[in-house]
Amino acid sequence: MAHAWTPYEFYVNGKLSHKGVNAFTLFKKDTYETSEWKIVHLIDTRRK
Question: Are the C-beta atoms of residues 42 and 24 closer than 8 Å to each other?
Fold first, then answer.
């Protein structure tokens, strides 16, 4: 299991609309042939 935070900025027509942080909770699923990370939870913040 892992947790990642990623800041972001969202622009509309070149102007900052809002920004914030995305927070992901991930789970690693191992099988005989592959290993995959799956997003199990996502939250975000938003500021103008």
Answer: yes
Number of separate domains in the chain: 1
3: closest CA among 46, 44, 42, 48?
42
- pLDDT tens-digit map of 6-26: 999 999 999 999 999 999 999
Q: What is the pLDDT of residue 48?
A: 82
Bridge partners (DSSP) of residue 41 are 25
| Domain ranges, residue 37 | 2-44
Q: Which pTM was predicted?
A: 0.66
Whole-angstrom Cα distance, residue 10 to residue 30? 34
- Sign of the alpha-carbon torsion through 11, 18, 4, 28: negative
